[in-house]
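>> received
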Amino acid sequence: MEVAVLKEIIKETDKNWRFIFESPLYDKLDYVSGQLVQVHANVPGFNETVVRNYSVASWPDGSNCFELIVTYLNGGAMSEYLFNYIEPGDEIHYKGPLGIFTLPKNLMDRDIYFVSTGSGISPFRSMMNYIYENKVPFKNIKLFFGTRTESDLLYREELEKIQRELPNFEFVPTLSQEDNPDFRSGYVHEHYLKLLG
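>> returned
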């Protein structure tokens, strides 16, 4: 089990907060974009340790920090803890990074579609920033991101910047509960399935 200290909370939207953790026992964290960490916490009101898996939203940058973005779920043990109890300077325990949901070795072989909703964008945000920062060559990548409204779009400015600078990357936000001429409307699956049909 590893130990991390909460450095900062960034309230990205009302219900999606970014939690920046530092692993003080390491100078550098080695992981692969797309991996997850398993967070263990003693939550007030629960007799047993609460365990949840979260994809790491940051990317390997030579530091000993990692970022999680968490969606608040009313009554959810871990989200109640993260949104209402934990404060900068507090410690958590975690396992990882873990998992094999990572980029293929050669991104030039095929077109790649990333599809996510809400905080599920975490691994793809990590992957795209890793590709961008390290100038990893790729054929074509489209990131379909479904949210309810424009205000729910996570990491929007960041992903739009990558899209402007990498012409073979396309960021495709889709709004299911708001009509906005600047974005696609409906559910995200309607849009990427057209390309696969």
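>> Strands lie at 2-10, 16-22, 36-41, 50-55, 65-71, 91-98, 111-117, 140-147, 169-175, 184-185.
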